[in-house]
Amino acid sequence: MSAIRSCIISFGLDPTELGGAPFALAVDGAVEAPARDLGLSLAPGARVYCLPCIAGHVGADAAGVALSEGPYLRDETTLIVDVGTNAEIILGDRARLLACSSPTGPAFEGAQISCGQRAAPGAVERVRIDRESLEPRYRVIGCDLWSNEPGFEAATAATGVTGVCGSGIIELVAELFLAGVISADGVIDGAAAARTPRLEAQGRAFAYVLREGAPRLVLTQTDVRAIQLAKAALHAGASLLLDRTGLAAPDRIVLAGAFGSHIDPLYATTLGMLPDCDPARVSSAGNAAGTGARIALLNRAARFEIEGVARRIEKIETAIEPEFQARFVAAMALPHASDPYERLARVMPLPARATGAPQRRRRTR
């Protein structure tokens, strides 16, 4: 919101539409103004250029990502996902481009998670769990050693182990799912307590203790639900775009943004954050929005190019799509309620799905 507020103040835009849902853009084209009018101490003739917005929640940063990655120049279909509190999603090729935004919330960034934190030195960023003993090992930002390796405690003495950042939370939930501790419905299975003391009861639910000590790092059932909600929103948005193009899966997937560059594609796909795709065809683009901004800064022809591309992108508004809720519910399961994720299963053995007819819930008065 700070970026939106700065833009409104700087360019004198009417913010009334921000009160609506979904809100309409005050201006959807590129905006240019003298730098001096914005209070910037630059060369007298310097001008400020803002890339065009694509839709209400698919902003100029998404246009920068599109310029950087150039899906409109490819024959193969590319799905680009900029993971954040609002996931901005672009799908298409040289023939057709679509875009939408999904309300993933801050769970992927460590917020709303009991042991979560931002990515900083001392945060757990990688997790592996032994399939038999269910004992964990992890790696933290600022140290190349795993927690079960000699010298780990000394190497992390300065920063400590302070919490779990987004990439670590994704891997922790995915590893527990692969180990059979978390069911496809996202329930931490109390029966696994017979295999490890790390599983402890919390009321009527269970939690997994990743680390004892101070701070004590525990993944709760509420944490798992937060991740399910976030990944289901992301998957549902991508699924809507794929459905509009008549495709079952994209040819390639690109994760953009600072957070996207640290996600392991294999674990992201295992959770069902992304549509089923060969993990080898999933890559990271890093700060693609920043790269696109630099391209636009240095190349006037690129500005005209992306302005034309932005005008022809089809905008899908997930907030008013009648199918979004059904897709969201199906995507709550790990990795998905109906998609068997056959491409993923070729490289990552997935837990067997439960069989048998679902039992009807008893009616209560």
Separate helix tally: 11
Strand content: 15-25%
Which oligomeric state applies?
single chain
Question: Rg to the nearest angstrom?
Answer: 22 Å
Tell me roughly what share of residues is in helical segments: 25-40%
Overall average pLDDT: 90
Give the spatial strand order of the biggest sheet: 13-12-3-4-5-14
Derived structural class: alpha/beta
Q: How many strands in all?
A: 14
Largest sheet: 6 strands, mixed
Question: How would you explain this protein's 3D organization?
Answer:
It is built from 11 helices and 14 strands. It is an alpha/beta fold. It has a domain at 115-219. It has a 6-stranded mixed beta sheet with strand order 13-12-3-4-5-14, sandwiched between helices. Strands 7-6-8 form a 3-stranded mixed beta sheet. The protein has a 3-stranded antiparallel beta sheet with strand order 9-10-11. α5 crosses α10 (324-330) and α8 (288-298) packs across α9. The N and C termini lie far apart (46 Å).
Quickly describe the structure:
By secondary structure, this protein is an alpha/beta fold. The protein contains eleven helices and 14 strands. The strands form four sheets. A six-stranded mixed β-sheet has the order 13-12-3-4-5-14, with helices on both faces. The protein has a three-stranded mixed β-sheet with strand order 7-6-8.
